[in-house]
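Incident log, structure service

09:12 report received: a user says their structure output differs between two submissions of the same chain.
09:20 pulled the input from the user's history:
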Amino acid sequence: MSTELQDWGILAMSQRERDVLAILKAVVSGDRTVTEAAGLLKLSARQVRRLKGKLKTQGDSALVHGLRGQPSNRCLEAKLRTQVLAAYRQRYRDFGPTFACEKLAEEGLKVGVETLRRWLLAEGLWERQRRRDPHRSRRPRRACLGELVQMDASVHEWLEGRGETIVLITMIDDATSRVEAKFYRHGSVESHLDLLGIWLRKYGRPLAVYTDRHSIFEPHEKGRPLADPDAQTQFGRALGELAIELIRAHSPQAKGRVERSFGTAQDRWVKELRLAKVTTCEDANALLAKLLPDHNKRFAKPARQPNDAHRPLGRDHKLASILSIQSERVVSNDYVVRFANTFYQLLPPAYPGERGGRVVIEQRLDGTLHIRFGKRHLPYQEITVGGSLGGSAPNPRSLAHQRPMPVRRRRDGSRSRTPVPRACSRLPDARSHSCGALSFRRRGGR
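09:34 re-ran on a clean worker, output below:
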């Protein structure tokens, strides 16, 4: 086609080639510099000068590729095409391109699938197949135990109004449907961390945990996920320290295995709790400990592969520390840390960088509080109201109201009506008064 157009004096050019021609003509006429053209065409200045020279000597056709309208250097021989189409018409007329290529290769006629498809379409021997929407089915199970563990909580009338409200939190292995579950009074992050610790001590560390997008697993701000992709919740931080991948589902159907397990539990376990006349969370867990082995024996499936993907806990995996609620605080100059409106005095020895540094407050699941600096856990004591150790301290701003406000005295011994602030340097007992992290010192003399 290109040769015929050139015979008529018409040059076939692509849109890109026409754009390049317009810019180069501006360079030839002096309206643009070579540098400007190089920036517009995203070419080097040397390449622009080369094209400019070809345009002057050969005309507009210099910008057209030399193989335009010519057969490809990699095309197959016309004789092979004739043989392939003849064999297809004779023996493989109802074969698809892929299957036909396999049979043709057995005869020594080697040709690519897409090449054969184009030849058949050009000859009218094949029609494009309309692709329908794919049929959606359940995701296949993982290959072995510990590859993926789904986790979710079920808020349900487990005790049918007989006692307190409880929540069932469940972890189920995707490959085997093996279940580990426990009842809690609240579906909080502490409850999820507690069940995770039970799984870790029993089986080890799985490769991944599959959850929903609750605020326990995904950071939220006013009900919407945070824009920061690096933001983590306490549960996500714990999984990160254990080298466990956290996968968050976009729909309940995506974690259908744990959702279907709740359907079974809400049918069977509710009736079991009713027959046992359970009214408390402790009694429910005592009964659940008897029900879980039978449940796993009845409903668990063998994995496709006998291997176990769980990894053992290492020496550095201190579960009591990892599975805790952690907060950072700054150490004051007198080695005091304030947390939850309580002051804690850090005891010797003092480590380099501890004063003015950051420590991690660990609220552990057993109710204890630990303070960690780096990898070291520091000894501490609480500070009382009077500045001594051993008790909790209220807000220091309210300490001024614990004793009567001192007043000034005139030279004749009479009292002044204007009270003096407690930290005033004129008070005899205000020279050095310290309480917790605060220190009021004399700023001047009489």
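09:41 both user submissions now match this output. Likely a transient worker issue. Closing.
09:42 reviewer note: Residues 331 and 354 are 7 Å apart (CA to CA). Confidence is low (pLDDT under 50) at residues 1-8, 391-405, 418-446.
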